[in-house]
Amino acid sequence: MNAPLADRLRPQNLDEIAGQHHLLDQNKPLRRIIESGHIPNMVFYGPSGVGKTTLATIIAKKTNRTLRKLNGTTATTADIRNIVDELSGFGGINGILLYLDEIQYFNKKQQQTLLEFIENGSITLIASTTENPYFYVYSAILSRSTVFEFKPLQKDDVAKAVRRAVSCLSQESGEELVFSDECVEHIAYACGGDVRKAINAVELSTISSPLVENKREISLDTVISLTQKSAVKYDKEGDEHYDLLSAFQKSMRGSDPDAAVHYLARILEADDLPSACRRLMVCACEDVGLANPQIIPIVKAAVDAAMMVGLPEARIPLADAVILVALSPKSNSAYMAIDNAIADVRAGKGGGFPRHLQNKHYDGADAKVKGQFYLYPHDYPNHWTDQQYLPDNLKGTVYYEAGMNKNEQAYRDYWQKIKNKK
């Protein structure tokens, strides 16, 4: 009983694994592969606590292979070679399945060493990673492996695991454990789809609750105090971080204030104030832009206030700004204009300048026509006169298209009226 409850409850067959229905339900691809007994090299990609290690263990048992585990944070190429040496002994009779956790921490040389042995079939590799493997895993390994994405568990799947954990603890201890439906639901929600975290919460909640006449009644307050931030902590360099920030900005862009403040709350609960401020400023400029140009200094003021007061008070000006951005009319016309202009510059278009825009006021001896001929717009009615501004090879190019909003349509109508006057 010294092992953690999550290890004592580790599933022993495919049907006991919680969640991952898209991979392991009857007739799903991965289940068929496992049941065939012909196991390819695989990469399991997904967050912690969703069954990657458990499934690798079950595969090794089901296919009668010798399972060896390494962790990318500590393993060396010597460890790999030691495992390969086992092939000549009893451990290699049915083949060796190497489970390499956190493969993203293996450098390129280590991954190349691994490649040597999986390529000739000496070892069957199951590598796992919490990061996008297409960014972190050596391409030659990926080309010889099949990638399966594991997803965070849904609340109902986690709730089943929580109830199973409660039953197991009760049987082991001989005590009556009272977990209300509210406690189960809270753990299932707060664990963020991580079964291991949920089971650990059950164990901690039980240990920290008083025993009265062979009965432990677990209160909701106890559960909340032990799980309050488990669903919002994330690696600020990992995929979940960028997924959350992406959802935050896309909700503001999509004019959904409820979703926007939800994702803001998750970012702030993870103590990531700078990321919230940065995405908010970007969204104001990129997605609202000229449809409501006054929003940019307003959001900047809210961000400055948030950074000045810090958390938890920073949530107030940020919520004001996020809701304002979500409810504002939208335009990406300026964003598109600058991106199109940059694309032309990178393509080598538009070198040089019209002569009348240059800073020099004299001509060389080779100039066929002397003089700068710049027309000063303020000398003309309405402070405008027609002259060329783009380089010759971009003359007539249009980068900016007015958005369909009140502000930009008013600007467009004004300048059309001025410029169409002869």
Describe the structure.
There is one protein chain. By secondary structure, the protein is an alpha/beta fold. Helix content is 49%, strand content 8%. It has 19 helices and seven strands. The chain has helices spanning 5-8, 21-24, 29-36, 52-62, 77-85, 108-119, 133-136, 139-143, 155-173, 181-190, 195-207, 220-227, 239-253, 257-269, 273-288, 295-309, 315-327, 333-346, 406-419, and strands at residues 42-45, 66-71, 96-101, 123-129, 146-149, 176-179, 215-218. A five-stranded parallel sheet has the order 2-3-4-1-5, sandwiched between helices. Helix 6 links the parallel strand 3 (96-101) and strand 4. The model has no long low-confidence stretch (mean pLDDT 84).
Alpha carbon gap, first and last residue: 92 Å
Overall helicity: 40-55%
Biggest sheet architecture = 5 strands, parallel
Shape: flat
Q: What Rg is obtained from the alpha carbons, in whole angstroms?
A: 31 Å
Ranges where pLDDT stays below 50 over 5 or more residues in a row are none
Query: What order do the helices and strands follow?
Result: HHHEHEHEHEHHEHEHHEHHHHHHHH
Query: What is the strand tally?
Result: 7
User: What is the average of the pLDDT values?
Assistant: 84
Strand content: 5-15%
Overview features:
single chain, flat, alpha/beta, two-stranded parallel sheet, five-stranded parallel sheet, 422 residues
Secondary structure layout:
Elements (H helix, E strand, L loop, with lengths): L4 H4 L12 H4 L4 H8 L5 E4 L6 H11 L3 E6 L5 H9 L10 E6 L6 H12 L3 E7 L3 H4 L2 H5 L2 E4 L5 H19 L2 E4 L1 H10 L4 H13 L7 E4 L1 H8 L11 H15 L3 H13 L3 H16 L6 H15 L5 H13 L5 H14 L59 H14 L3
Parallel strand pairs: 1-4, 1-5, 2-3, 3-4, 6-7
